[in-house]
Design a protein that fits this description.
Layout (H helix, E strand, L loop, with lengths): L1 E4 L2 H6 L3 E3 L12 E2 H11 L6 E3 L2 E3 L4 H5 L3 E4 L2 E3 L5 E2 L4 E5 L6
Parallel strand pairs: 1-9
Antiparallel strand pairs: 1-2, 3-8, 4-5, 6-7, 6-9
Length: about 100
């Protein structure tokens, strides 16, 4: 499946897009859910070491922390059900909270 990250999610993931083989997540042929994909992504991407930037030290937020605050689109449709079953051809968009006025 194709995963697209936006804004803070892209920064935490270190990429704007990746592909994930759902067969690698399936246990005994069971369906793969949104929750399983998010858990896998969270475990794979721990927070990076702090980065020195002049006099300041900048901390990088882990992908798992960002994912906990995100909303998700599957094939362009908002999904809140973590038990939603995913298919290899699905596209998951990861959208962090937006600021502005």
């Amino acid at each position: 499946m194709r995963i697209r990250y936006f804004a803070a999610a892209a920064q935490a993931a270190g990429t704007t897009e990746e592909h994930l083989d759902l067969e690698d997540l399936a246990i005994d042929g069971s369906p793969v859910t949104l929750e399983m994909v998010l858990d896998t992504l969270s475990l794979r991407e721990p927070a990076a070491e702090p980065v020195a930037s002049g006099l300041l030290v900048r901390r990088t937020t882990s992908l798992g922390t960002v994912l906990a605050r995100c909303s998700f689109l599957i094939n362009g449709i908002s999904v809140q059900d973590m038990d939603r079953v995913l298919s290899p051809g699905d596209e998951l968009d990861v959208l962090p909270p937006f600021a502005g006025g």
